[in-house]
Design goal:
Keywords: Carbohydrate metabolism, Isomerase, Metal-binding
Order of helices and strands: EHEHEHEHEEHEHEHH
Protein name: Ribulose-phosphate 3-epimerase
Number of helices: 8
Strand order of the largest sheet: 1-8-7-6-5-4-3-2
CATH architecture: Alpha-Beta Barrel
Shape: globular
EC number: 5.1.3.1
CATH superfamily: Aldolase class I
Number of strands: 8
Radius of gyration: 16 Å
Structural class: alpha/beta
Helix content: 25-40%
Pathway: Carbohydrate degradation
Cofactor: Zn(2+); a divalent metal cation; Mn(2+); Co(2+)
């Protein structure tokens, strides 16, 4: 299976954000992954809706927005209006997850649920048939460039089993530390979408790096 590739704009050069987005437009990337951090749910702050709107203005790829924030419900409509086509919220941040997923679908976006490295996939049993995507964090969320957590492979295998068992059409997205050495193993385990940030943007030739991931 050819994976979907979602470069994380968080690792881009923000002094040249239009050029970075246009580079992704010209690549074989499928999505642009947008990490939103509030400094509360995760120990870092990224950017908010005005920057998201600036990215959306130039993007020709689908915007895959990952909300690493508390109280995501109050911002769903704003991010949808700013161009989000996939909105992923964290299992750990949502008290009423099913209602949040319904709200995302009501806005006309695809709904994803992200899980931290310590969160078992079994906790998604009651929601997996209602969502479009599971974002498996393969590093602790909050900062780019972290080391990949090796337990992710078995976690993806368990998640794939759950998806098949429940008859879900949810895609499995891997976020954190993805590179050319672990990507083939992730695809074999059942991953559908690979998020890559610093691995893409810190490479000498980002477009060639995206091609390499896509060609796995």
């Amino acid at each position: 299976m050819t994976p979907f590739i979602a470069p994380s704009i968080l690792a881009a050069d923000f002094a040249n954000i239009q050029a970075e987005v246009e580079m992704l437009n010209a690549s074989v990337a499928d999505y642009i992954h947008v990490d939103i951090m509030d400094g509360v749910f995760v120990p870092n702050i990224s950017f908010g809706i005005p920057v998201m709107e600036a990215i959306s203005k130039h993007a020709k790829k689908l915007l895959d927005v990952h909300l690493m924030i508390v109280n995501p419900d109050q911002y769903l409509e704003a991010f949808r209006k700013a161009g989000a086509e996939i909105i992923s919220v964290h299992y750990e941040a949502c008290t009423h997850l099913h209602r949040t997923v319904q709200a995302i679908h009501h806005l006309g976006a695809k709904a994803g649920v992200a899980i931290n490295p310590h969160t078992p996939v079994d906790l998604l049993q009651e929601i997996i048939a209602d969502i479009d995507l599971v974002c498996v964090m393969s590093v602790n969320p909050g900062f780019g460039g972290q080391k990949f957590i090796e337990n992710t492979y078995s976690k993806v295998e368990k998640l794939k089993e759950l998806i098949l068992k429940k008859g879900s059409s949810a895609k499995i997205e891997i976020d954190g530390g993805v590179n050319l050495s672990n990507a083939p193993k992730l695809i074999t385990a059942g991953a559908d979408i690979l998020v890559a940030g610093s691995f893409v943007f810190n490479s000498p030739d980002p477009i060639a790096t995206i091609n390499g991931l896509k060609g796995i």
